[in-house]
UniProtKB/TrEMBL annotation:
GO terms for cellular component: cytoplasm. Transmembrane segments: none annotated. Keywords: Cytoplasm, Iron, Metal-binding, Oxidoreductase. The lineage of its organism: Eukaryota, Metazoa, Ecdysozoa, Arthropoda, Hexapoda. It catalyses: myo-inositol + O2 = D-glucuronate + H2O + H(+). Fe cation binds at residues 95, 120-121, 191, 217, 250. GO terms for molecular function: inositol oxygenase activity; iron ion binding. Pfam families: MIOX. It comes from Frankliniella fusca. Its main location: cytoplasm. This is Inositol oxygenase. It is found in: Cytoplasm. SUPFAM superfamilies: HD-domain/PDEase-like (SSF109604). InterPro entries: Inositol_oxygenase. Substrate binds at residues 23, 82-84, 124, 138-139, 217-218.
Length: 283
């Protein structure tokens, strides 16, 4: 018999555990990691307003905070543990290399894709320079319009967000026009948008597909939830398959057990950095 679920989203052979065990956001007060995750999103969903995002963008998008090469920034991720992630309990540097190596195995010819895998979460360096975890990590969603049903903890964690009472922001389209395109949508502030903007500011030669994956990889309510399609234009729909291809490696290579040998892999990825985003960058 044909199993339709396999047609919809085939389970990748490389997944480090059964796919249903990833992204488990059920609530369990006795589970240390589940409580860590729930509390982080509660704070995010309470405080992530249009005004907050405007203010953070105005500050971070000056790129006057520090200077570092991409490899230095990657190495900094060994000091960072993502508290929003139910599937990872080791420093984030491991996850970057796991993602990149997963991509490299199946797309050996696409250096740009592998590099996108390595750097996609490096925007979390925000936290090492003062940004709280709740506005650095976690899934993203548009601000300035109603929160869609597939946002995690949608029913229980937005009650105290001031935008819930706003006459425009609380409506389906909010401050947006139908099919305005995601590039014209203001996303919740976090590591995706920051990394995308850092790459552009520093004139990366990575292709559009890579930039798009990086910018929207945490937008699960869209790429996996199927929500917010009313804000998408043709470009977004054309890019969606790339975001989903990226997501396979981002999510299913996560494991705390089989950790990559960062030193041994560094020379290979340094070459890709030299090709696509060389030198000292402004952050
Ligand atoms: O907890 C994770 C983590 O913060 C990831 O980096 C982000 O991309 C995911 O969307 C989120 O669920
Ligand atoms: Fe991420
Ligand atoms: Fe990631």
């Amino acid at each position: 018999m044909l199993d339709v679920s396999e047609l919809l989203r085939p389970e990748p052979a490389f997944a480090t555990k059964p796919v249903v065990q990833f992204r488990d956001y059920t609530v369990d007060p006795n589970d240390r990691i589940k409580e860590r995750v729930r509390k982080l999103y509660h704070e995010m969903h309470t405080k992530m307003t249009v005004d907050f995002v405007k203010e953070r963008r105005a500050s971070w998008l000056k790129f006057d905070k520090f200077k570092a090469t991409m490899m230095d920034a990657i190495r900094k991720m060994s000091e960072f543990l993502d508290e929003s992630d139910p599937d990872v309990d080791v420093p984030n540097i491991m996850h970057g290399f796991q993602t990149a190596e997963g991509i490299r195995k199946e797309h050996p010819d696409k250096g740009w894709f592998q590099l996108a895998g390595l750097i996609h979460d490096v925007g979390k360096i925000l936290h090492l320079y003062g940004e709280p975890q709740w506005s650095t990590t976690g899934d993203t969603f548009p601000v300035g319009c109603d929160w869609a049903p597939s946002v995690v903890y949608r029913e229980t964690s937005f009650q105290d967000n001031p935008d819930a009472k706003h006459p425009v922001y609380s409506t389906k389209y909010g401050m947006y026009k139908p099919r305005c395109g995601l590039e014209n949508v203001t996303m919740s502030w976090g590591h995706d948008e920051y990394m995308y903007q850092v790459l552009r500011h520093n004139k990366t030669t990575l292709p559009d597909e890579a930039l798009y994956m990086i910018r929207f990889h945490s937008f699960y309510p869209w790429h996996s939830g199927g929500d917010y399609m009313h804000l998408c234009n043709d470009k977004d729909l054309k890019m969606l398959p790339w975001v989903l291809e990226f997501n396979k490696y981002d999510l299913y290579t996560k494991t705390d057990d089989d950790l990559p040998d960062v030193e041994a892999l560094t020379p290979y990825y340094q070459k890709l950095i030299d090709q696509y985003i060389p030198g000292v960058l402004e952050w």
